[in-house]
Amino acid sequence: MKKKIAILLLASMVLSFSACNQKQESGSAASEASQTSASSEASQNSETVTEASLSLWTDSAPLKTQLTDYIKTITDESSGFFIPVKNRIAVFDMDGTLCCETDPGYFDHKLLYHRVMEDPDYKDKASDEEKETAKIIEEYFKTGSYPKGLDVKHGTAVATAFKGMTPDEFDSYVKAYRDQPMNSYTNMTNGQAFYKPMLQVIDLLQANDFTVYIISGTDRFITRGLAEGIVNIPRSQMIGSDESLIATGQGDADGLDYTFTRNDKLVTGGDFLIKNLKMNKVTVIEQEIGVQPVLSFGNSSGDAAMANFTITNNKYKSAAFMLCCDDTERENGNIEKAEKMRKSCEENGWTAVSMKNDWTTIYGGGVTYNGKAE
Question: Cβ(351)–Cβ(66) under 8 Å?
Answer without folding.
Answer: yes
